[in-house]
Amino acid sequence: MELRNLELFVHLSQSLHFGRTADAMAVSPSTLSRAIQRLEQEVGCELLVRDNRSVALTPAGQQLQQFAEGWLAEWQQLRDQLRHNDGPLQGRLRLFCSVTASYFLLPDILARFRTRYPQLELRLETGDPALAIDKVLNEETDLAIAARPDALPAKLEFIRLQTVPLVFIAPRIPCLANELLQQSPADWSRIPVILPEQGVARKRTNQWFRNKGINPHVYAEVAGNEAIVGMVALGCGVALVPAAVIRHSPMADKIQRLAVTPDLKPFEVGVCLLKRRLDDPLIRAFHQIALQQANPESP
């Protein structure tokens, strides 16, 4: 029985989704399917019941899940001890962050990390920051740079790196949004608004409009702040985005900030991970670097 096949099975038994497990474990769906088939051949029975819409564990699958989780945990602990005793820390970490975070937060942390642990490998995935927390909770990544939600799940550790303001932005070019904004007072119920699909910025935008008693005219819902800035620059509407995204956007000269009341509550951006994974030496190493980045005066 191959170790890798067991690892794939354990992740799949938790996610119950072939696509998510394939992405998280960096294999193709066909490779994942073959690994499960080989396990079923080895144990001589069906481990999963699957159709086009769902995946469920059979009783045998539940038994193997319990065995494999315990065995893999013991193997991980032994491997970590051997690595620690035998020389420099080695292995691979998966990190998820937005494109903008990879510009303005990640370089300093990685510089410290690579200097101290040159033999550790980092697998970086960039994407919509609204997905970061769920990716950590679902163990699709080991660590993430994320916006702290208003209600942080108890199982998560969060290290604040920066506090980032949220700002409304509008296009500089003549367009419908600017025509409506120039009216006094501006009719926000008619101004096209571009919203993030989910995440902290979406919740803050919704709350701002609720506080104003406005039912906004939603032009589009978009995944990723960088794409939102691009749409605003093209004249599609106005949007609420983190100020850091504007500072690092090639479209910054094509948008303008709007002065609005009430002021928008900023949010915290930092490193997020599962608390229970702090026993992993690789996770703990990155955690220590993040703490030093957050508190540069600490030893």
Protein architecture, described:
By secondary structure, the protein is α/β, with parallel strands linked by helices. It has helices at 3-15, 18-24, 29-43, 59-86, 99-104, 106-116, 132-137, 176-181, 200-212, 225-233, 243-247, 281-294; strands at 48-50, 55-57, 91-97, 120-126, 143-147, 156-164, 166-171, 192-196, 217-222, 238-242, 255-258, 267-274. It folds into three domains: 3-85, Arc Repressor Mutant, subunit A; 88-164 and 268-294, D-Maltodextrin-Binding Protein, domain 2; 166-265, D-Maltodextrin-Binding Protein, domain 2 (3-Layer(aba) Sandwich). It is 44% helix and 23% strand. Strand 1 (48-50) and strand 2 form a beta hairpin. The chain is globular, with a radius of gyration of 23 Å. The model has no long low-confidence stretch (mean pLDDT 86). Belongs to the LysR transcriptional regulatory family.
Structural class: alpha/beta
* Proportion of strand residues: 15-25%
**Spatial strand order of the main sheet:** 4-3-5-12-6
**Corresponding CATH architecture of the largest domain:** 3-Layer(aba) Sandwich
CATH-level-4 superfamily name of the largest domain: Periplasmic binding protein-like II
Total beta strands = 12
- How much helical structure, as a percent, in the residues? 40-55%
Q: Kindly report how far apart the N and C termini lie.
A: 45 Å
Please give the domain count.
Answer: 3
What integer value in Å does the Rg equal? 23 Å
- DSSP summary: helix tally: 12
Under CATH, the topology of the largest domain can be stated as D-Maltodextrin-Binding Protein, domain 2
**What sort of overall outline do the alpha carbons produce when their principal axes are compared?**
globular
Instruction: Report low-confidence residues grouped into runs of 5 or more.
Output: none
CATH C-level of the largest domain: Alpha Beta
Mean pLDDT: 86
Sheet having the most strands: 5 strands, mixed
- Give the helices and strands as they follow along the chain: HHHEEHEHHEHEEEHEHEHEHEEH
Protein name: HTH-type transcriptional activator IlvY
InterPro entries: IlvY_PBP2, LysR_HTH_N, LysR_subst-bd, WH-like_DNA-bd_sf, WH_DNA-bd_sf
Keywords: DNA-binding, Transcription, Transcription regulation
Domain HTH lysR-type: 1-58
